[in-house]
Design a protein that fits this description.
The protein is mostly beta strands. It contains one helix and 25 strands. About 5% of the residues have low confidence.
């Protein structure tokens, strides 16, 4: 059975007595922290989230201790090609990996750096054995068996509203789409991500728990650059079917009380209205191309702040220019241009 996008696995060394790839230390996360082998245990130190990017042709392996960190390669003067974990943001290229299937039925793979012929290699078989990137040998120390991580205590009453597009939670928020490919990035003139509709899952999911602050029914569609489209520039109708949600800020790296997310160009008239409560990961719509839009995509913006207008329960539209927005990829790093 092949590995699946959005699931977490133990990576068991085929040549290392079945010991598991593990972050060094006691559930500690830091930049360039070493990766070793250790006896298989049900701990997040050994739980690795696999995210696939089929359009761009690479894989990332993130630690479930903190999914902002992923497997990487150390390029310092000492211990060059050591395997460690590193923040994905700022190290996007070195975190791109490739899985070479050896036996799909047994879930046996080689893991290599995408742009170099260097393979994930166990340097020993005992507890604490180092792990490095080495040239291909075809030996068992470069084979890894993926076993789905079961977790320590299954949720006896899982919340179906918290699944969403956010496989691999970042705490109290999730990805609003399953697709990770973007056609437009964040700029001062376009303070949002345009997320492509590339997945078989076309749904839009609530970023976090919150209360709908604004809902718009506007199913017209105008092509940018046409006289009709130019006439719609800057109007509320240009957003198409749209929802804005206010949240208590779930992002620990942003020191503000509240957050607002906006979802534009939805396919259908929103079924949610101002005052409705939503749960993290709840499906709130479908990706579409209503408003001023040239094709199916989600225009997604994210803001945090302390002003009362962003508090859950406060209703009404806030002009884009007055929102304290930032690039969503700061906290949703799997989104990429492509």
């Amino acid at each position: 059975m092949a590995y699946e996008n959005g699931k977490s696995y133990w990576f068991l060394s085929y040549g290392g007595s079945g010991r598991a790839l593990s972050v060094y230390g006691n559930s500690q996360v830091s930049q360039n922290r070493n990766v070793i082998l250790w006896d298989k245990q049900v701990i997040d130190d050994q739980s690795w989230y696999v995210g696939t990017y089929p359009i761009s042709g690479f894989v990332r392996i993130r630690t479930d201790l903190d999914q902002r960190y992923g497997l990487n390669v150390w390029r310092g003067a000492d211990n060059y090609y050591n395997c460690d974990i590193c923040m994905i943001t700022g190290n996007e290229e070195d975190s791109k990996l490739d899985f070479i299937t050896v036996n799909g039925n047994e879930n046996l793979y080689r893991v290599k750096l995408l742009k170099e012929d260097m393979y994930l290699t166990a340097m020993g078989t005992g507890n604490g054995a180092d792990v490095r990137w080495k040239a291909l040998t075809r030996n068992d120390d470069q084979l890894w068996k993926l076993v789905e991580f079961t977790g320590s205590t299954p949720d006896p009453d899982p919340d179906p509203g918290n699944e969403g597009g956010g496989q691999g939670p970042y705490g109290d928020y999730v990805y609003p789409t399953v697709s990770r490919a973007c056609s437009g990035g964040y700029t001062s003139k376009h303070p949002a991500l345009d997320i492509r509709d590339t997945s078989s899952d076309h749904n839009i999911y609530a970023f976090a728990d919150g209360i709908v602050a604004y809902s718009q029914n506007s199913s017209g569609q105008w092509m940018p650059g046409t006289p009709e489209g130019n006439a719609m520039e800057g109007t509320l109708a240009s957003m198409g079917n749209c929802i804005a949600i206010n949240h208590n800020n779930p992002i620990t790296t942003k020191n503000h009380a509240y957050a607002r997310t906006i979802y534009m160009h939805m396919k259908n008239n929103p079924s949610l209205h101002a005052g409705d409560t939503v749960k993290k990961g709840q499906m709130i719509g479908t990706i579409g191309t209503t408003g001023l839009s040239s094709g199916n995509h989600l225009h997604f913006s994210l803001s945090t702040g302390d002003q009362a207008t962003l508090a859950p329960g406060q209703n009404g539209w806030i002009g884009i220019s007055r929102l304290p927005d930032f690039d969503p990829r700061q906290v949703l790093p799997e989104y990429y241009m492509g």
